Amino acid sequence: MQSKQTGRIGAALIWCAVIAAIVVPVVAASTSPLLAWRDPIYILAGFAGIVAMCLMLLQPLLIAGYLPGTPKVIGQRVHRMVGAALVIAIIIHVAGLWITSPPDVMDALLFVSPTAFSVWGVIAMWAVFAAALLATFRKRLRLGFRTWRRAHLVFAVITVAGTVTHALLIEGTMETITKILLCALVVLATAKIILDLWVSAARRRRGT
Amino acid sequence: MSRLLFTRRSLLAAGSAVVAAGVSGQVRPAYAQGLAPTPSMRGGANNYRPGAPIVDRIGGGGFWMTGTVRRAGDGAPLAGQRIQIWAHTTEGHERDPQSHGATLTDANGEFRMEMPQIVPAFGQPHGHLAYDSEDFQTVFLRPVMRSSRDKTLEAHFVLQPA
Question: A189 is in which domain, residue-wise?
Fold first, then answer.
């Protein structure tokens, strides 16, 4: 009884932490003074980027079943839906910035931007698209599951590395401390899934 | 049957290679003969509006863009040169016409333009300046403010005869 109750409290804490990790940065960004001097489309573009990073935190948690009370089957289904939402968020982010300042986005997409963070953002964007395409055409690609998962995970790691670097170098609407914390959580969640896979692969090799 | 996803070493190597590629910049050769002309900066021409009018001040003011214009080689100050200035400010986006204005250098080759406070846009608090007239080669600059709380920003042109 005791342990069941502790487990329930632990589960509630994890859920609260995940919800807070997503809600707090968005709320903090919504108080940014920069918003006063931006058109709605530019504001939308910025928030689409923030939402995209929040969704990135959910992805490893969902697919690996780290969220308490979420069966793996449901986690996988939601992972796919969140992945689609992530692609849409990134398209809104880039399109909104394009409308706000076409030459700056053109420079970024062509990798000739004066700002290093744009390069990282564009790398992350292509990595997300690649991971999503792999997921969409998984059956038709006929890769073995391990090979497919490795490729999908490599793109996910590039996405996370690119996004976090992109976000940290930018002086934008995100509040600094909540931005750093969200970045750290996204990196930790991704690192956890890789470590768990390493450990289980090593265990399989040892036959234990 | 089962294999590791990737080794720690390969992941670290790939990661650091990507970081190195992103961070490395360009190196420019030193100019041997006298004062070198200022090269245009990446992205400097973005949202440029050719022929923006000469104004006393852009919008309500409160922020100062200053700088000098000199001739390449001997460094002589160039008077009466038209410099266009634009930025994302508290009063408008870069592409907005009211965010643009031009001014002329004085006898010492110096210019000063009052404009609204520049605020961070596209990730950095930065301004844009252009020299785009007949006598010298066109130069576009994109200086970045050290802090978004700064009330001034400066940019210097060394122009090469066209």
Answer: 2-206
